[in-house]
Specification:
This protein has 328 residues and is mainly alpha-helical. It has 14 helices and four strands.
């Protein structure tokens, strides 16, 4: 007799997991052996990975397709400025901006999570635009002309880049760990059930509301951290850029190309996007059009992204597998 069972995934070896952990720790040594420009570029790459992982957590695991995560990116950046203006040390302000963004997400969740599908996407975008307008009207935050993070100017440039890189890498590893633990727990399977059919999941006893709330807050935390780190890396922001919808376009591109709903896909997509950005960003509008065409092509012809090409490949044993057992 054939019986199907659901078990926690064991795909991937301890050696592979150990190698990934060792590689992550080795990245902390980058500022000691590479130029300042390399360190700054790697910081930008880590920020892109954070954004891709967070958007994939929302859409790939929870089915929450947001086009307004730039609300938390901008809030994290301007929250850092606000805190430094009130006497908080710059890097401490960067750290505190992430939980502050999580609090904002918790406040917005009861409103936005009532919406579904396209309504949720549009609602999240409206929130982002509203926050951008409020910030642009606040002269203490630089108004529409933008503002710089002056507190970091007291650090030597090389030291500042190293500190920003280490902080970014720390946030990235923390968020990857949280997502991996989420997928290893039954909560991850419940979220994916909500993504596939929320009403069916609820009928089976899945607590859809609290799970979506927790995922939305996690994404707000990660995107807020990314916004604060963008400011620390560039030292200057403007409302129209940090709250710009182009961040959503970047996140969608990275996740669709890499692999929606996979752990490793967004990381691969972020690396590919970073390389494309280095080569073609100077082409302006044509560059953005090209990204849109490529993303649409993947959505139509390779919806599971590049990571699906090697079947069954996983770097970490996350998620659950359906196994067939033969019993006599």
């Amino acid at each position: 007799m054939t019986q199907w069972t659901v078990r926690r995934s064991t795909t991937g070896t301890r050696i592979a997991s150990g190698a990934l952990v060792a590689g992550g720790l080795a990245l902390f040594a980058v500022p000691f052996g590479f130029t300042a420009n390399v360190v700054q570029q790697l910081t930008s790459l880590c920020i892109l990975v954070i954004l891709a992982v967070m958007w994939n957590a929302l859409a790939g695991y929870g089915g929450l397709v947001s086009v307004g995560q730039q609300a938390f990116i901008g809030f994290g950046a301007y929250g850092t400025v606000f805190l430094t203006q009130h006497g908080v040390a710059p890097y401490l302000a960067v750290v505190l901006a992430a939980p502050a963004s999580a609090v904002l997400a918790a406040l917005l969740a009861p409103l936005l999570l009532r919406l579904r599908g396209g309504q949720f996407a549009v609602g999240s975008w409206v929130v982002a635009e509203t926050l951008a307008l409020l910030v642009a009207l606040d002269e203490d935050l630089g108004g529409g002309t933008g503002v710089s993070l002056r507190g970091l100017s007291f650090y030597a440039p090389t030291l500042r880049r190293a500190y920003t890189y280490w902080l970014t890498l720390g946030f990235l590893l923390l968020l990857l760990l949280l997502v991996a633990l989420l997928l290893r727990h039954r909560t991850g399977a419940a979220l994916q059930a909500i993504r596939d059919d929320e009403e069916a999941a609820a009928s089976l006893g899945v607590r859809t509301g609290p799970l979506k709330f927790g995922l939305f807050v996690l994404a707000g935390f990660g995107c807020g951290a990314a916004g604060a780190l963008i400011l620390a890396n560039t030292l200057f922001i403007q409302p129209q850029s940090i709250f710009g919808v182009q961040w959503t376009a970047y996140m969608i591109f990275m996740v669709l190309v890499g692999g929606l709903g996979t752990f490793e896909g967004p990381i691969l997509g972020a690396v590919l996007f970073f390389l494309l950005q280095q080569q073609f960003a100077q082409y302006g509008a044509w560059y953005l059009i090209g990204l849109g065409v490529v993303a649409a092509g993947f959505a139509l012809f390779l919806p599971r992204g590049l990571w699906s090409l090697p079947p069954g490949l996983r770097l970490l044993p996350v998620g659950y597998d359906l196994r067939r057992e033969n019993r006599s």
